[in-house]
Amino acid sequence: MRICLVCQNIDCKSRGSEQLMQEFQKRVAARGLTDVEVKPYMCFGACQEGPNIVLYPEKNWYAKVKVEDLDEITDHLAGGPHVQRLDTIDSSLKELIYQLLDTGIL
Ligand code: FES
């Protein structure tokens, strides 16, 4: 199972992450990506860069995601290219969060 974590804490929510998560769930289902689950996450610690989405276990972090970006992210999940322009988070913060996820805190 692959997981897409969509931050639902206050800052990301104030930028529309609730609707973003719902739209993302619809697109993943419409593509028939049955091995992908879109789930809420509490906070990635990059609140000013939100809405934030982290794909796990592949470890891709997309920041400042808008509904218009979701088709490209869904394409990526279906085997398409990495969405480079949304990959803007500092690598040390990414590593920290990936390590947390590796410990099983989902
Ligand atoms: S509120 Fe989304 S990363 Fe903190």
Question: Could you give the count of β-strands?
Answer: 4
CATH architecture: 3-Layer(aba) Sandwich
Can you tell me the CATH topology? Glutaredoxin
Tally the structural domains. Answer: 1
Q: Compute the separation of the termini in Å.
A: 13 Å
Poorly predicted tracts of residues: none
CATH class label: Alpha Beta
Overall geometric form: globular
Q: How many strands, what sense, and barrel or not for the largest sheet?
A: 4 strands, mixed
Bound molecules: FE2/S2 (inorganic) cluster
Q: What is the element string, with H for helices and E for strands?
A: EHHEEEHH
Q: In order across it, which strands form the biggest sheet?
A: 2-1-3-4
Query: What gyration radius follows from the Cα positions, in whole Å?
Result: 12 Å
Query: What is the SS-derived class?
Result: alpha+beta
How many DSSP helices?
A: 4
Percent helix, as a range, is: 25-40%
Q: Work out the strand percent.
A: 15-25%
Overall mean confidence score, pLDDT: 96
CATH superfamily: Glutaredoxin
